[in-house]
Amino acid sequence: MSYSIAEIAKLLSLNIIGKENFADYKIKNINSLKDANGDEISFIADRKYIKYLNTTNAAAVIMDFSLLKDELPTNLKFAILDTKNPYLAFARMTQLFYSADNVESSNGFVLDNDFIDKTALIGEGTVIYPNVYIEKASRIGENCKILPGVFIGQNVIIGDNVTIYPNVTVYSKSIIGNNCIIHAGSVIGSDGFGYAKDGKEYVKIIHLGNTILEDDVEIGASTSIDRGAIGSTIIKKGTKIDNLVQIAHNVSIGENCALASQTGIAGSAVIGNNVIMGGQVGVAGHLTVGDNVIIAAQSGISHDIKDNEVVAGSPAIPIKEWRVSMVLFKKLPELFNKIKKI
């Protein structure tokens, strides 16, 4: 698929600056400034890549012209597509050129009927690839793509326009909303880590609840989201979860959150809306993290966090305090030696 520079500008609400004779030039692909060819488009959202503006072969570059105009090459070789948020424009552009799943659409479905229960309902335009196993009374909406090796348990409900990549397991009673993406190897709705102690032995708690992913949720590869022991584990609308994340039973994660890789959230924790967690964050169970909180990588959350806080460290403290602590920490050997001499 290709678009002219003028078409891209119109579709993404961008302004063309310079090289207006390029307006009808066809763009076939997206690439980095460093590697782009003459029929490709790129973007710059970080000043550390300015050096590549002098050497790029891209036909067009998305940027905030007002911020970079004094640092551009004298003889521009590319058209500028101006926007105040080039990274967002880049995201929109990827959706323009490529579907989120890169799987070709089809009017029918490819399947072996022996692996799909007769009571399962498959929506119009949904593509079921070979070696998918769907148990009884499950419902899959329209225009979904279920790739090879996926297991879908009993009484699962999947909305429209959902893509599930190979070897995903969706346990019984799970609910997946519209426009969700689940990447390879992830597990939705497995039993949580729940046991009762009987002397020296552990007695397993059978988890009776389910897992709910609301609309527009994306789950990275090899992530596990446990079902509720009683009730639901809920990932709310628009939240994005990276690879290798563990979400325990009865956790509630709010809308439009972003959780980076290797984060772990213990049982019954409540995460507010618009929360950002860096990689390897750990959240203890039965805690509440408020709205609009930012948690730095490798932080340990051992107490409730109020709305709008930015925290770091383990145990986590306000990030300004943490930075001061790190400065003092580096001075400890020097201070120790001074004390020894007293």
From TrEMBL:
It is an enzyme of class 2 (transferase). Pfam families: Hexapep, LpxD. GO terms for biological process: lipid A biosynthetic process. GO terms for cellular component: membrane. One of its GO terms (molecular function) is N-acyltransferase activity. Coiled coil: none annotated. Pathway: Bacterial outer membrane biogenesis; LPS lipid A biosynthesis. Its EC number is 2.3.1.191. Homotrimer. Catalyzes the N-acylation of UDP-3-O-acylglucosamine using 3-hydroxyacyl-ACP as the acyl donor. Is involved in the biosynthesis of lipid A, a phosphorylated glycolipid that anchors the lipopolysaccharide to the outer membrane of the cell. Belongs to the transferase hexapeptide repeat family. LpxD subfamily. This is UDP-3-O-acylglucosamine N-acyltransferase.
